[in-house]
Amino acid sequence: MNVTLRELLPGDAAALLNLQDRLDGETSFMLLAPGERKSGISQVEEMIRGLHQAENSLILGAEADGELVGYLSVQGGSFSRNRHSAYIVTGILKQYQGRGIGSALFKEMDQWARDCGLVRLELTVMQHNEQAVALYKKQGFEIEGLKRKSLLVDGQWVDEYYMGKIYN
Question: How large is the C-alpha radius of gyration of the chain?
Fold first, then answer.
């Protein structure tokens, strides 16, 4: 399997929206439930454009078999007091997990983050999502806290870890 990583551009909005819809449907680990995503292509184009224009934000895509199969977005702070920090969201289609795509996305993002001067990266992850927690720990993230009853998924309360990574 040949995987290509690249920064997504506004013209990738339809592919990203399709990927996000598929992720919402195949896993309960994403924030949105199936059918809950209300953004259209124009909103996704605008979101990508905004990330692309910000010096401390990025959205990477992973392409395999002629389609977008994963992404990682980095949303940097927009004020002087938090510009050094960024929040991460990532998703990879189930059939492509465990093949090194997540590690590759994080490696690419890591170099970019260092180059643009970010000091802190952060994310939240469902406590029982052991595969994702293992990936984030492997990438140097540490558990910084626990959000109890953070989400209600399929009628069950779910706790989330706060995880962070500091560049020295």
Answer: 15
CA of residue 124 relative to chain centroid, distance:
10
CA distance 47 to 35: 19
Residue among 123, 130, 116, 16 nearest 62 (CA): 16
Is it the case that residue 37 has pLDDT exceeding 90?
no
H or E element, residue 131: helix 130-138
> Measured between alpha carbons, how far is residue 73 from residues 56, 123, 124, 127, 156 in Å?
11, 11, 13, 21, 27
pLDDT at residue 84 in the model:
96
CB atoms inside a 10 Å sphere around CB 107: 13
